[in-house]
Write a structure and sequence with these properties.
Length: 489
């Protein structure tokens, strides 16, 4: 039975139909019905998409037109080297591989930088201050946390304060960087260096200048990495437990190259992501290290041996190996490495000569800048301080260097190498490789009281047999001045 509402409601209007004259059944009178409700449903389903698409079509001419009014870079006269340099360095961080300013903080200020005497924003004597770094359009600096090596320390076990002093240099370098946050950003990764440059800061990184500063210890390499050091110069001007220095060879000594412990240092540096710096090492050490390194190597401040046959410089066969290895040689500015016969005649063009040769043999992808400012006792006219980097870029452009080659030289190469070293470290660690525990083969380990609570029976038996006595043994190990007398304890 129908309800009252149904019986009393007015009749529904007839369903509207549409016909297609070209469609007919066998009688020629068939109709195709399209309900109005279906049309409304279809529109509602697609209404949002239609509106968005229509809006996009409407605004496209205006957005395109707006781009026409944005300031576009005008073409540059290829001989306008100053403007070309400016544009390159506005987009690419200029990163120098080696500056010794922290050493001067130690020598001149005894690492005291808060008493008002030291202000890097003022014009200082020497090569480095903030004003000139800005003038030189610098985007990054590896600060050397250097402590000199002593040739009278012949033995791995000879006592010294070098590791302590190195820790103090790491400390003062970090404090110096932190004192000028509007200028410097302390960085431990290439991503940080790139970000600092984008934010208008000078990325600041740390490098240790010699394995002697870590006592030749692989464990100390790990601790240095944890403290933020990102490259270690394998040797300085004396041999160490890892390798032969070029200075030893220059004085007529044999070139033994890398030691077995040095090979372990290379492997552990690869595992950590620590950059292996081969400036200062002997030529055989260069060849040995590159031959076993899984990651690219760097030379933080070296020249071309074929241009000037100084043993601090890199021979052509090593340059070709650097190309295959993927590393970078950062050109030094020190006069005596640029022209041994007449250092006083060196100019900015001699630096360009070395860079050009490095690029010709190793490739433009494997050359960088490593001035040795604030450590070098002499620098070329035209490259007197950190403000002069753009002048060097202009000299190279005048010789035919392209903007892309200058970009690589200025900073892209060292950043790419650093990134590659990071990736290799991640790969090695993903293989599950443990920290290396190798030690110098002649190392003498500590003993202690023969009544100590030893973990193993054989140790207890050995201590009793050898009559271990901590204080007597300490005095017999040539550490008399470093060990307290028993009465003082």
């Amino acid at each position: 039975m129908a309800s009252t509402a149904e019986t009393n409601s007015p009749p529904e209007p007839p369903l509207r139909t549409a016909t297609r004259p070209d469609t007919a059944d066998s009688d020629g009178n068939a109709l195709i019905v399209h309900p109005q409700a279906s049309q409304i449903s279809w529109f509602r389903r697609w209404r949002s998409a239609i509106i968005v698409a229509s809006f996009a079509v409407l605004i496209t001419p205006f957005t395109s037109l707006g781009s026409w009014f944005l300031p576009a870079e005008s073409p540059i006269d290829p001989t306008n080297y100053a403007l070309r340099t400016k544009r390159v360095l506005e987009r690419t961080p200029l990163i120098d591989g080696h500056n010794d300013l922290p050493w001067l903080l130690r020598v001149e200020l005894h690492n005291r930088i808060y008493d008002g005497r030291f202000d890097p924003n003022r014009r200082l004597l020497g090569h480095t201050d903030i004003g000139r770094m800005r003038q030189g359009m610098m985007g990054g600096q590896f600060w050397s946390v250097y402590i000199r090596c002593y040739t009278d320390l012949k033995h791995f076990e000879d006592p010294s304060w070098i590791v302590r002093d190195t820790l103090e240099q790491i400390d003062v370098a970090k404090r110096f960087i932190a004192e000028s946050p509007e200028t410097f950003t302390y960085c431990e990764t290439p991503a940080c260096a790139r970000a600092a440059f984008k934010n208008g800061r000078i990325a600041s990184m740390l490098g240790i200048e010699g394995g002697h500063q870590l006592g030749g210890s692989i464990a100390a390499v790990r601790q240095a990495y944890d403290l933020g050091v990102r490259y270690i110069t394998t040797t300085h001007n004396c041999d160490n437990a890892w390798a032969t220095s070029c200075t030893t060879v220059a004085r007529g000594g044999p070139d033994h190259g890398l030691t077995p412990l040095g090979a372990a240092y290379v492997r552990e540096s690869n595992r950590l992501g620590m950059m292996i710096d081969l400036s200062h090492v002997s030529h055989q050490t260069m060849r040995d290290a590159i031959s076993i390194s899984e990651a690219p190597v760097i030379f933080s401040h070296s020249g071309a041996y074929s241009v000037t046959p100084h043993l601090r410089n890199v021979p052509d066969d090593v340059l070709r190996s650097v190309r295959r290895n993927g590393g970078v040689v950062m050109a030094v500015f020190l006069n005596s490495f640029l022209n041994m016969e007449d250092p006083g005649a060196v100019t900015i063009h001699d630096v360009a000569d070395h860079i050009w040769h490095l690029a010709e043999v190793a490739g433009w992808e494997h050359v960088g800048l490593g001035s040795d400012f604030s450590g070098a006792t002499e620098t070329p006219p035209g490259l007197e301080d950190v403000s002069k980097y753009p002048d060097l870029m202009e000299v190279l452009m005048a010789r035919g260097a392209t903007d892309e080659q200058i970009r690589l030289l200025a900073g892209e190469n060292i950043l790419r190498v650093w990134e590659s070293i990071e990736l290799k470290a991640q790969e090695i660690q993903a293989r599950g490789e443990k920290p290396i525990e190798e030690e110098w083969e002649g190392r003498e380990w500590h003993k202690t009281f023969r009544d100590s609570p030893f973990m193993y029976r054989e140790t207890k038996e050995r201590a009793a047999k050898e009559s271990w006595d901590f204080y007597r043994m300490a005095k017999s190990e040539n550490h008399d001045s470093a060990v307290k007398a028993i009465d003082d304890i």
